[in-house]
Design brief:
317 residues; alpha/beta; Rossmann fold; 8-stranded mixed beta sheet; 8 strands
């Protein structure tokens, strides 16, 4: 049973996002595997639950699936129009570093491509616990390097790259930028950070927005961190503990009704203090994962439009 989420019993969640949350929750309950299910079964259920939300949306002029670089990382290229080499958004799906895929986030990538006019390259990085930190980070850095060196052969401007993602993907977008900075390698031109996970330390929003009425619980997040880190500690895993100077401009999409909201706001403050050009959009009524509700949500539509306009402006010639 859902509790009241605000004083006076008023539900803080946007009504259309609430429809999305209830549908996802009901589908998980209907398809839930037994407690003994292995990771493959858990992932299969997660894919099935998300499938209705990735259907439809913008058509692409071209879609390519490749394996690239020395690590043979799977990528998916969504090109909204066949034209001269243009800027690229490298997008990293969420799922706690443990689940989800290029399939679960296919519509979200196509939405960014259509709205920004940029080619979007999704990265099918290795999932934990089979591939713990830092494997996914290494794969993302490898793809960024490959695009810089080889992108022109596919009509991609490897010198105008943005990197972005949601949740665990936002973590990887930020930490890949940190890793490149620390190695003295070329940085992305921009970072799109959607309701990311940046630290293992709970903050007040973990308690305020925990529970079945939201899209991510504190217990789930603890489990994701444990599977991803496997006991490792590094600022390249928990970037709120890292030095943030010298990073590219950032756009932060923050969901108000999200256990991760406070660490996202803290990251925004720390980026500004470090001299990083930072644009923040805090969406009232939004839950974790709300962008995936784009087929029914005006709030998700607005958030995508605002991020796409920022991306297009940031990577303009």
């Amino acid at each position: 049973m859902e509790r009241a989420y605000a004083a006076g019993g008023i539900d803080e969640v946007d009504p259309e996002i609430r429809r999305f949350q209830r549908r996802v929750t009901d589908d998980y309950a209907r398809l839930a595997p037994p407690d003994s299910a292995d990771m493959a079964e858990r992932r299969a259920v997660a894919e099935a639950v998300r499938r209705p939300w990735t259907a439809g949306g913008p058509a692409m002029a071209e879609t390519l699936n490749l394996q690239v670089g020395p690590l043979a990382v799977p990528i998916r290229i969504h090109r909204p129009a066949c034209a001269e080499p243009g800027p690229v958004l490298v997008y990293l799906h969420g799922g706690g570093w443990v689940m989800f895929s290029l399939e679960t986030h296919d519509r979200l990538m196509r939405e960014y491509a259509a709205r920004s006019g940029m080619t979007v390259v999704g990265v099918g990085y290795g999932l934990a616990p089979e591939h713990r930190f830092p494997r996914a980070l290494e794969e993302v850095v490898s793809v960024l390097g490959w695009l810089r060196a080889q992108g022109a052969g596919l009509g991609l401007d490897g010198q105008r790259l943005a990197v972005g993602g949601d949740s665990a993907g936002a973590n990887l977008a930020l930490t890949a930028s940190l890793a490149l900075r620390d190695a003295g390698r070329p940085l992305p031109a921009a970072m799109l950070l959607n309701y990311g996970a940046y630290d293992t330390v709970p903050r007040p929003s973990h308690e305020r927005y925990d529970g079945a009425g939201y899209m991510l619980t504190a217990e789930e997040m603890r489990g994701f961190w444990a599977l991803y880190l496997g006991g490792a500690e590094s600022p390249l895993a928990t970037p709120l503990r890292a030095r943030l100077e010298g990073l590219p401009p950032a756009f932060l999409c923050i969901a108000q009704c999200d256990i991760l909201a406070d660490e996202n706001r803290e990251l925004a403050r720390r980026l500004v203090a470090a001299g990083v050009a930072t644009t923040v959009r805090d969406y009232p009524g939004a839950t974790h994962s709300f962008l995936e509700a784009v087929s029914i949500s005006g709030l998700a539509q607005r958030a995508l439009d605002e991020a796409a306009a920022w991306l297009a402006g940031s990577l303009a010639s």
